[in-house]
Amino acid sequence: MKPEHHFKRSASLLFDAINDWPKRLQEPIELIEELKQEIGSPLLREHCKNYYTKLNVVQDAWKKEALSSVLEMFDFEKSEYDFNVNLEEIIVKITNQ
What we know:
By secondary structure, this protein is mainly α. It is built from five helices and no strands.
């Protein structure tokens, strides 16, 4: 996958996660703050995935939708050697390009 496509897809997923969150958010930092309140810190893939699996498919549909985008963002950053990629680091990469 080309780096430009990678960036576009990651940025699109971030946009989707922000828009799908049930509370009105405008900035990536607001999504990070919301996720930290819900999940805790650090925002690692495994923590996000565990939280996702505990959500109710009906009552928490929008949170599940937002988290599915977040988890896909982690897939782009996945390294066979580093499983401790933090969501904040991913978002910094996306927003600073």
